[in-house]
Amino acid sequence: MSDSQLSDGVVTLSPLCLDDLDAHLAGEDDQLVWWLNGGPSTRAGTEAYIRKCMQQWSDDGPLRAFGIHVDTQAALVGTIDLRFGLEDLADGQVNIAYGLYPKWRGRGLATRAVHLVCQYAATQGVTQGVIRVEPENAASVAVAQRAGFRYVTQIQAPDGTQLSCYVRDLAARSFNTRI
């Protein structure tokens, strides 16, 4: 697994690992279940997912899941992941998904995390980040917009869910983490 960490001095991203399991389970709330998970997490299911994420890092696979940490406390405050090579994305694009635990929302931490993963994705040859979000998820839409993403279209997910697509060019982009 990659030992690399990304930091802007406030937020640090590190590859998701088993040390994050308890904090992740404790941080999950109804909003994360509704917008991201599709159902409440179980310990066994979350452990299996984290092991898969660790294997993806080890194999240089298409999923790169990070824990979002606040430097001053090293607390896990959420997760953010990149998915490379999705068949419904163009070459050079990467999907970005994120979620924060309730007590950490509204502080600009998700926006900082998005800036950091965009910086990482650019080093991996990605030219455009894509955030797909349900239009009713106002907080996630706001993060995308604050992080410099622009609305481009609405699509229908395979399950019928309507998603708004936001994109941001990463090539030759100044990665300013001011929010």
Describe the structure.
This protein is of the alpha+beta class and 179 residues long. The chain has one domain: Gcn5-related N-acetyltransferase (GNAT) (Aminopeptidase), CATH 3.40.630.30. Helices cover 31% and strands 30% of the residues. It is built from 5 helices and 8 strands; from the N terminus they run E-E-H-H-H-E-E-E-H-E-H-E-E. It has helices spanning 21-27, 30-37, 43-59, 109-123, 138-146; strands at residues 6-7, 11-15, 63-70, 75-84, 93-100, 128-133, 150-156, 162-169. Strands 1-2-3-4-5-6-8-7 form an 8-stranded mixed β-sheet, with helices on both faces. Strand 5 (93-100), helix 4 (109-123) and strand 6 form a beta-alpha-beta unit. Helix 1 (21-27) packs across helix 3. The longest helix has 17 residues, at 43-59. Mean pLDDT is 86; it is low at 174-179.
Summarize the structure.
With 179 residues, the protein is an alpha+beta fold. The protein is built from five helices and eight strands, in the order ββαααβββαβαββ.
Largest beta sheet, briefly?
A: 8 strands, mixed
The N- and C-terminal alpha carbons lie at a distance of 30 Å
- The run of helices and strands is EEHHHEEEHEHEE
Tell me the strand percentage band.
25-35%
Secondary-structure topology with pairs:
Elements (H helix, E strand, L loop, with lengths): L5 E2 L3 E5 L5 H7 L2 H8 L5 H17 L3 E8 L4 E10 L8 E8 L8 H15 L4 E6 L4 H9 L3 E7 L5 E8 L10
Parallel strand pairs: 5-6
Antiparallel strand pairs: 1-2, 2-3, 3-4, 4-5, 6-8, 7-8
